[in-house]
């Protein structure tokens, strides 16, 4: 029987955690005692400028067996051929894009989480701390004697197939499809898988994810803070010759060897932490009268830009819910958006496209590229009897919506061979319905 993983609940809270094997490991009343309990080293991990206002200030103090600086020099490695921040590999393409499910490597090719990283699209530059990258991970093997961190951005991980055991410096998180994990800039982690595994990653270079403001919704609703879970301290005291720390730095991978596990944090405290969230806890708000609300009502997390109300990227879901609007075309409307919309499917199907948009696949509707329901969906929804209906049951589609204009990589456009060249056809049968009669 599996033991339930312990977690601390809350979003953006000041947490503290001590591995029960070493009571008293967390210094009391100060961060840097002259000598830390148990001979631990104190190390601060800063997630914001020291001088950031209190509301934005993020840091944690880690009490560890060895400080992170004990490692050999970083050397460039080329183990993830399709991980890139080069947005100029291919000509820009404003077309609607859709991808069939990305292939997971076959069992005879052992690929771990880092080797399995493939960048689909993105914009901006981590050197300027502005932009985002959207990757998929396609793997079948657990990371061994290695840990990964991104020097470029925060990683929001959305598993689609396969459970993940994520060992972090702060403790262990287990996530399954329909849960997400956020590992923030600089946090080291290792991913263990149970078999063929696939998922999506949103990496934001600007800053950190927040819960959206609720405005007139009030104090409760959407993703509630208590449902975000942070792991508890759980250290490994292991000498591991040749342990590799893999760093994604300015879009390239580097490796530094050390002879011990980096997961040696015995106690920690702070508000800069990794966390997970179960999407089934999302409290859905929607129209109970008429018309289709903008999908911003489904925002789980947002990484804001410096422009008020404009996101570098929002993480939006389309959860199971009741649809009750009267005299309304209920599916998504036809639209052109000044934001870029990357969508993925975790489970089941998506209402605006019952066919062709499949779990493990994706779509990208770039800035101002027209899109909306396919002709089959339009026809059905225009003629449906509008009774209350539970929709999206057993499904979970999501969107990474960005104010940046993203470029598709060469892998996304060509190498993956999953891009559906016939996607545009799904709208071509939309008929001209215009008539001389006011009543049609
Ligand atoms: O394009 C999409 O399918 C995503 C989407 C959904 C919705 O309900 C309204 C707008 C929108 O962009
Ligand atoms: Fe859209």
TrEMBL record:
Q: Which InterPro entries match?
A: HgmA_C, HgmA_N, Homogentis_dOase, RmlC-like_jellyroll, RmlC_Cupin_sf
Query: What are the BP-aspect GO terms?
Result: L-phenylalanine catabolic process; L-tyrosine catabolic process
Protein's pathway: Amino-acid degradation; L-phenylalanine degradation; acetoacetate and fumarate from L-phenylalanine: step 4/6
Indicate which residues the UniProt annotation says bind Fe cation. 335, 341, 371
Show where the Homogentisate 1,2-dioxygenase C-terminal domain sits: 280-432
Listed GO cellular component terms?
cytoplasm
Q: Give the main EC class.
A: oxidoreductase
Listed cofactors: Fe cation
Q: What is this protein called?
A: Homogentisate 1,2-dioxygenase
Q: Tell me which species this is from.
A: Papilio machaon
């Amino acid at each position: 029987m599996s033991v339930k993983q312990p977690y601390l609940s809350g979003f953006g809270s000041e947490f503290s955690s001590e591995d029960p094997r070493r009571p008293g490991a967390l210094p009391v009343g100060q961060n840097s005692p002259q000598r830390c309990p148990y001979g631990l080293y104190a190390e601060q991990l800063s997630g914001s400028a020291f001088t950031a206002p209190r509301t934005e200030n993020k840091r944690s103090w880690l009490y560890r067996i060895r400080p992170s600086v004990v490692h050999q020099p970083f050397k460039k490695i080329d183990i993830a051929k399709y991980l890139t921040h080069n947005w100029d590999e291919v000509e820009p393409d404003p077309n609607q894009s859709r991808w069939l499910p990305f292939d997971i490597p076959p069992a005879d090719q052992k690929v771990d989480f880092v080797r399995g990283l493939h960048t689909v699209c993105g914009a901006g530059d981590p050197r300027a701390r502005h932009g985002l990258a959207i990757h998929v991970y396609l793997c079948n093997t657990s990371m061994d004697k290695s840990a990964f961190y991104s020097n470029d951005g925060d990683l929001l991980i959305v598993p689609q197939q396969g459970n993940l055991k994520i060992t972090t410096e702060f403790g262990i998180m287990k996530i399954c499809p329909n849960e997400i994990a956020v590992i923030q800039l600089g946090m080291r982690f290792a991913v263990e898988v149970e078999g063929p595994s696939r998922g999506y990653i949103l990496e934001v270079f600007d800053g950190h994810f927040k819960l959206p403001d609720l405005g007139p919704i009030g104090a409760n609703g959407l993703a509630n803070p208590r449902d975000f879970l942070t792991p508890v301290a759980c250290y490994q005291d292991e000498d591991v010759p040749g342990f590799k720390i893999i760093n994604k730095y300015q879009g390239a991978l580097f490796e530094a060897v050390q002879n011990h596990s980096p997961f040696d944090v015995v106690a920690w405290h702070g508000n800069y932490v990794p966390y997970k969230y179960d999407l089934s806890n999302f409290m859905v708000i929607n129209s109970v009268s008429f018309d289709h609300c903008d999908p911003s009502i489904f925002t789980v997390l947002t990484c804001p830009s410096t422009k008020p109300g404009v996101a570098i990227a929002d993480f939006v879901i389309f959860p199971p819910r009741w649809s009750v609007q009267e005299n309304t075309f209920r599916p998504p409307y036809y639209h052109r958006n000044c934001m870029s919309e990357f969508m993925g499917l975790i489970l089941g199907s998506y209402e605006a496209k019952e066919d062709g948009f499949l779990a493990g696949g994706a779509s990208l509707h770039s800035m101002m590229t027209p899109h909306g329901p396919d002709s089959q969906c339009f026809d059905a929804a225009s003629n449906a009897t509008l009774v209350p209906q539970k929709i999206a049951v057993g499904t979970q589609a999501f969107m990474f919506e960005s104010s940046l204009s993203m470029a598709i990589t060469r892998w996304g456009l060509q190498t993956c061979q999953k891009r559906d060249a016939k996607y545009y056809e799904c709208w071509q049968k939309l008929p001209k319905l215009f008539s001389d009669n006011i009543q049609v």
